[in-house]
Amino acid sequence: MSRFLLLDNIDVQQAFSVHLRQLREQAKLSREALAERSSVPASTIKKFELTGEISFRQLLLLWQSLDDLKRLYDLTVIAPN
């Protein structure tokens, strides 16, 4: 019997928020330092870390500053049948 995990957009937003916050903390970056590196305002980073809300463009900028953007891009590649 298979198990289904029901996720909604809020769950996914929060997961991305937690992941990027952990990466920021592992890199020993303050929100202000990440803001300088990514060009995303520190206030937006704080809001994202607390609520998961952010524009897609800003999410990509943060991801690029903390992780390999190709890992995120690879999620869009459909494997051949």
Automatic annotation (TrEMBL):
Signal peptide: none annotated. InterPro entries: Cro/C1-type_HTH, Lambda_DNA-bd_dom_sf. Residues 20-49 form the HTH cro/C1-type domain. It holds the Pfam family HTH_31. SUPFAM superfamilies: lambda repressor-like DNA-binding domains. One of its GO terms (molecular function) is DNA binding. It comes from the Bacteria. This is Helix-turn-helix domain-containing protein.
